[in-house]
Design brief:
This is Alpha-glucuronidase. This protein has 20 helices and 20 strands. It is an alpha/beta fold and 675 residues long. The chain folds into three domains: 112 residues, Chitobiase, domain 2; 356 residues, Alpha-Beta Barrel (TIM Barrel), CATH 3.20.20.80; 122 residues, Alpha-glucuronidase, C-terminal domain (Alpha-d-glucuronidase, C-terminal Domain, Alpha-Beta Complex). Strands 7-12-13-14-15-16-17-18 form an eight-stranded parallel barrel. Strands 2-1-3-5-4-6 form a six-stranded mixed sheet. Bound molecules: beta-D-glucopyranuronic acid. The site of beta-D-glucopyranuronic acid has 10 residues, from loops.
Length: 675
């Protein structure tokens, strides 16, 4: 049965890559050389574009554009773009480089055919660029089909089954390939009993997804349950040192690869938020990860093991336990003990995808371990795809962070270099030395991402995976051009203005100065200042009548700042050098504390909340003014979301300002109305 809505009833709105972006390429003579399914995909793209725009695919005479395989050109997936004999050429080392080369030509349009085009080598910085779908096969009673999903149901699964029609999955793979992503994980990190079967009797479903995305160079990964041998009823234990358990994983994994030879690897959330793990058997996370690594090693594939391990049953009265410390406390001492094909996947901040967090110190430690950074594209804490929140400026700050001071190489450089002393960090040369992972934000919504403008976050993550140093504003403009190719300058300008600073605007009207949370418990949307304050989750702001913030210093607090290398340990420790935007993450200060910006903490709270909500109010007429320039369905969806963002921003403003006004008794120095 075809589960896609009838096209005229509820069309799926394309994202980037509408046919018109192929105009320059499609109106020329284009030849594609190379064998295999990836080259076939490129040929099919070219044929469709030429048919539409009057060009010639596979001409017998000299082409205007040649895409071909030329050994030694630019490494796996890489390509050289340049001019040879009066034609534009894409020279790729193997077929995997042809598709990215094609999309680079598409992005450039006419400029790709400039006779003066100089040679450029393009290579992805991160070898594995993976989107982790938190999609449940079986609808979860609380979390629904997609955990933290804000764009409808799963594009893979519906009510316990694989969707019968995977054409939308194929379309998705095409969009991802054009953004630079090369892998997806098809099920949630919280692996329910039913989902455990994906490894065994439901493997055919995974194989079907793999077949749908393979033509676009995308590989499939699966989240596995550490207790799978027990859950599936095969063994009485999942102890990672038990020989029978190890054999079970080895033979199960062999069967996976026999069915899906290019299978990508496993993802594991263990001993975290109720998931099973090696602690049950008195074993370490190195024992657990290495067992899975041993099963995957003969196939040259990695296990991504998440570092998101903390006590979610904390006593809130105990001010010495600090959730921010947890990942480093659990993992740093294990450095050097992980197998070559274990990748420790670390959330970018120490807590949990808040609007503002420092870089996780785990990413700055563990020089002998493969580390992956995990970003969250789905906007769990950043407006849930009802608010415009363009996240790449935040991600760029993480990737461009300088681990040992202002002149040291960036975090991205370090992550892509792999562990020190490793032989380019590989098992059979296939374990990626650089891994960028991100929690996906798409669903079966007609706009893919609920908020049409949230597509830009999805697009950008792949682009940063290729070039982490790229300016987020330039990526935004690229996305605007690819998605709205016919847009007049006024529309481009409006889109850019609405999106470019939207993360900072969101930060202004939500939790202040890096303190985090203050969201409604459970679903995490909207303000609730004390919602998590007296709960076991370890996410507190400690506001009282005198001050606010978490003392994480070595001198008087939890000692978290000591997990950083210098100079960060000292910078964060000292009030005189701690950056304003992270002040309350690291310090508990009086409301009257003077920020480096020259204003007090309490006045900063008032000012930013008024300013943020005001900015959102202005965004609505800006969007209304371009109504005639965007297709009506897209315009209406964005307008509807902006109305909710406006309501929500004012709710945040009023709750936060009122709470701190009442707590502190300090009046607003501008005399504005606070309830
Ligand atoms: C938290 C989410 C939760 C996820 C968890 C994780 O609230 O739904 O399962 O992260 O990353 O942010 O495992």
């Amino acid at each position: 049965m075809n589960e896609r809505p009838a096209p005229d009833a509820d069309p799926v709105h394309a994202a980037w890559l509408p046919p018109s972006v192929f105009r320059a390429l499609g109106s020329r003579r284009v030849r594609v050389d190379g064998e295999g399914p990836l080259a076939d995909t490129v040929r099919a793209e070219v044929a469709a574009a030429c048919a539409r725009f009057g060009g010639v695919a596979q001409p017998t005479s000299a082409p205007d554009l040649l895409l071909t395989v030329a050994a030694g050109a630019a490494g796996s997936e890489g390509f050289l773009l340049g001019r040879r004999d009066g034609a534009t050429v894409v020279l790729a080392d193997g077929p995997a480089g042809l598709l990215p080369g094609l999309f680079e030509v598409v992005r450039r349009g006419e400029a790709a055919f400039d006779p003066a085009l100089a040679d450029e080598r393009h290579q992805p910085a991160f070898r594995l660029r993976v989107l982790d779908h938190w999609d449940n096969v079986f609808v979860h009673p609380v979390m629904g089909q997609v955990e933290r999903g804000y764009a409808g149901g799963s594009i893979f699964w519906q009510g316990g089954r694989l969707r019968a029609d995977l054409s939308r999955v194929r379309d998705y793979a095409r969009l991802l390939a054009a953004s630079g992503i090369n892998a997806i994980t098809v099920n949630n990190v919280n692996v329910g009993e039913g989902e455990t079967h994906l490894l065994t009797d439901r493997l055919g479903d995974v194989a079907a997804i793999a077949s749908a995305v393979r033509p676009y160079g995308i590989r499939v990964h699966v989240s596995v349950n550490f207790a799978a041998p027990v859950i599936l009823g095969d063994l009485p234990t999942a102890d990672p040192l038990d020989p029978a358990v190890r054999r079970w994983w080895a033979s199960t994994t062999d069967r996976v690869f026999a069915t899906i030879p290019d299978f990508g690897g496993y993802l594991v959330k263990a001993d975290s938020e109720g998931q099973p793990g090696p602690f049950t058997y008195g074993r370490t996370h190195a024992d657990g990860a290495n067992m899975l690594a041993a099963a995957l090693a003969p196939h040259g594939a990695p296990v991504r093991w998440r570092a998101f391990v903390y006590n979610h049953r904390q006593d809130w009265r105990d001010r010495t336990t600090d959730r921010a410390r947890a990942a480093h406390d659990h993992f740093a001492a294990l450095d050097g003990r992980f197998a070559d094909n274990v990748i420790l996947q670390v959330k970018h901040g120490p807590i949990d995808f808040q609007t503002r967090e420092p870089v996780s110190p785990v990413l700055l430690a563990m020089p002998h371990t493969h580390l992956a950074v995990e970003l969250q594209v789905t906007q769990e804490y950043t407006g849930q795809q009802r608010h415009i929140c363009y996240l790449p400026p935040m991600w760029s700050g993480v990737l461009g962070f300088r681990p040992t001071g202002d002149t040291s190489p960036t975090l991205a450089t370090r992550l892509t270099a792999g562990p020190s002393g490793a032989d380019s960090g590989s098992v059979s040369g296939r374990t990626p030395a650089g891994v960028l992972s991100a929690v996906a934000n798409v669903g079966d919504d007609r706009f893919w991402t609920g908020h049409p403008l949230a597509q830009a976050n999805l697009y950008a993550v792949g682009r940063l995976g290729w070039a982490p140093g790229r300016d987020p504003a330039a990526i935004l403009d690229e996305w605007i051009s690819l998605t709205f190719p016919e847009a007049p300058p006024r529309l481009r300008h409006t889109l850019h203005t609405l999106m470019d600073d939207s993360w900072l605007t969101y930060e202004q009207y939500t939790a202040p100065l890096g303190v985090g949370f203050m969201v409604r418990p459970g679903h995490h949307y909207g303000p609730d200042v004390d919602g998590y304050e007296y709960t076991p989750w370890g996410t507190y702001h400690f506001a009282d009548r005198d001050g606010i913030g978490v003392d994480r210093t070595v001198a008087t607090g939890t000692g978290f700042t000591g997990q950083y290398p210098p100079p960060w340990s000292e910078r964060y420790e000292s009030l005189s050098t701690c950056p304003d935007e992270l002040l309350l993450f690291f310090h508990h200060v009086p409301y009257t504390h003077l920020l480096h910006s020259g204003t007090t903490v309490i006045q900063h709270i008032y000012d930013t909340h008024f300013a943020g909500a005001q900015r959102v109010a202005e965004m609505r007429p800006e969007w209304d003014s371009v109504a005639g320039l965007v297709d009506p369905a897209t315009h209406a969806r964005v307008a509807e979301r902006l109305a909710e963002q406006h309501r929500s921003a004012e709710e945040w403003r009023d709750q936060i300002n009122t709470y701190f006004h009442r707590k502190s008794g300090v009046p607003d120095d501008k005399g504005r109305r606070i309830h």
